[in-house]
Amino acid sequence: MRAEIRMSETMVDQASELNARQRWTVMVVCALALFLVGLDTTIVTIGLPQIAAGVSADPGRMAWVVDAYTVVFASLLITAGALADRFGRRRVFRTGLMVFGLASLACAVAPSLSFLIVARLAQGAGASMLSPVALAIVVNVMRDPAERARAIGVWGAVFGLSMAAGPVTGGALIAAFDWRSVFWINLPVVGVSLLLVAAVVPESRGSRWRRLDIPGQLLLVLFLGGLVALLIEGPHLGWLSPVVIVGYVLVLVVAIVFVLVESRSREPLIAPSLFRVVSFTGAVLGAVAIFVAFSLTLLVTTVLLQEGSGRSALAAGALTLPMAVAATVFAPISGNLVARVGPRLPLLGAGVAVVAAGVCLLIALSVWVTGLNVPLLVVGYVLLGVGVGLANAPITNTAVSGLPPDRAGVAGGTASTARQLGTALGVALGGSLVAQSASEDLATSTLAGWLVVMLCGGILILVSRTAVDARLG
Questions:
Q1: 69 exposed, middle or buried (CB, 10 Å; 0-12, 13-18, 19+)?
Q2: CA dihedral 155, 205, 415, 128 (to 10 degrees)
Q3: Residue 63 has what pLDDT?
Q4: Average pLDDT in the 26-31 region?
Q5: What local confidence, expressed as pLDDT, does residue 4 receive?
Q6: What pLDDT digit, counting tens, does each position of 73-129 carry?
């Protein structure tokens, strides 16, 4: 143990010897991997119709292609961070890149939907070793608080940009090549990243190792996977069919057992006691809500634009560009607002923008069924992008501000898991709506989706009332 502690101290010293250019080079390398992770969450969504045709799959079940990745990613985030602290962050980071790259290769050559889903599961496992570990590497090399704050600001902007840029990038790749290109594109990026990691990223470990919570980890995977499976398969099996009713019961039992196990664990994966803090619970709900609204809208609109109005993947992706621009522009504005006036105002603004986006989408896609109102759809996209841009900084601020400093890492990890959970739930709900559209008209099949988006905006407005200002806390 003493030898390991001395090794850890040597690694920390290596990080402290880096000059400013080397530190920001490390930041760029880690941000490149982060961009890849975020991009793969949304780039596939635009190509679901083409993937369904390519592998001869039921379009209503294509949500699995997105959620197989997202559920595993969300479930393993905290454990991946613990493994990196124990066995070395650069080592786990490189392992994640290799797993992600090999899984991307498998996705690109997938002959069937089942094969593709398994490959996406592996890709999600690789992604879980990139996002939290890369952030830990950046925090380790950025010792000056002001420099670290700037780096984390850039970090948040890169992830938001990657999520928003996915549909445009995917549409362009599909137009130029085919759906498999959205996976092939990962390989050169992974190769360059591996070379740069070997050249410039120092090794480091955590000063204190977090014990692995294997029972909690397994239960979390079962809970998230079961919940998403019910949402995706419900329209096909029937929401009141015996199989689905048994699924409801099993998911509820797993959730109860998870809470009991985590309450008794010395180092739980997600401590239930954290949710006694109202501001933390609000931040988690806010993270889930904003990404449910974003991912549901993205999936449903891009599928309807292609299959409902006959637009190409490139045209459908291009229409989402204003959303990406709005999210990118308002992310730093939100960070400045949090620094100046606290998290409540930007959270409130995010909630109002998302509610308004839901209203625009309702009118553009559900009420005026005689023809798609493209200008109003674009306004809805812009408003949703404003909401996403405004929400992220205050959610992170609120998650960590109501807790002691030594629990900030756990709070941040849980908030990141909540974001991915929101993405998975939004995609699953969107997939259910797409499955129902085969037997119902456009207005009926999408109405519930835009009501959910408005509900998510309402949740953000309520959460803004519970927000805690880090400057005061």
A1: buried
A2: 80
A3: 85
A4: 86
A5: 38
A6: 888 888 887 888 788 888 999 999 999 999 999 999 999 999 999 999 999 999 988
Tally the C-alpha atoms within 13 A of residue 287's C-alpha that lie toward its C-beta: 27
User: Can you give the three-state secondary structure of the chain, one letter per residue?
Assistant: CHHHHHHHHHHHHHHHCCCHHHHHHHHHHHHHHHHHHHHHHHCCHHHHHHHHHHCCCCHHHCHHHHHHHHHHHHHHHHHHHHHHHHHCHHHHHHHHHHHHHHHHHHHHCCCCHHHHHHHHHHHHHHHHCCHHHHHHHHHHHCCCHHHHHHHHHHHHHHHHHHHHHHHHHHHHHHHHCCCCHHHHCHHHHHHHHHHHHHHHCCCCCCCCCCCCCHHHHHHHHHHHHHHHHHHHHHHHHCCCCHHHHHHHHHHHHHHHHHHHHHHHCCCCCCCHHHHHCHHHHHHHHHHHHHHHHHHHHHHHHHHHHHHHCCCCHHHHHHHCHHHHHHHHHHHHHHHHHHHHHCCHHHHHHHHHHHHHHHHHHHHHHHHCCCCCCHHHHHHHHHHHHHHHHHHHHHHHHHHHHCCCHHHHHHHHHHHHHHHHHHHHHHHHHHHHHHHHCCCCCHHHHHHHHHHHHHHHHHHHHHHHCCCCCCCCC
Mean pLDDT of the chain: 83
User: CB of 460 within 8 A of CB of 354?
Assistant: yes
Report the 10 Å Cβ neighbour count for 135: 23
Per-residue pLDDT at 261 exceeds 60 = yes
Domain at 1-201, CATH class: mainly alpha
The single-letter code of the amino acid at 206 is G
Name the one residue in this structure whose structure tokens are 């400045």.
Answer: 336
**pTM (whole model) above 0.70:** yes
| Neighbour count for residue 399 (Cβ, 10 Å) | 31
Domain boundaries, the chain: 1-201, 214-266, 275-473
Q: Give the residue carrying structure tokens 């949304």.
A: 42
Q: Cα–Cα distance between 427 and 424 in angstroms, integer?
A: 5
- The model's confidence at residue 14, banded by pLDDT at 50, 70 and 90, is low
One-letter amino acid for residue 271 of the chain: A
Question: pLDDT tens digits for 399-448?
Answer: 766 666 555 556 667 777 888 889 889 988 888 887 776 555 655 677 88
% pLDDT > 70, the chain = 86
Neighbouring C-beta atoms of residue 295, cutoff 10 Å: 28
For residue 458, which amino acid is it? Answer: G
According to CATH, the topology of domain 275-473 is: Growth Hormone; Chain: A; (1.20.1250)
Q: Are 69 and 119 in contact (CB under 8 A)?
A: no
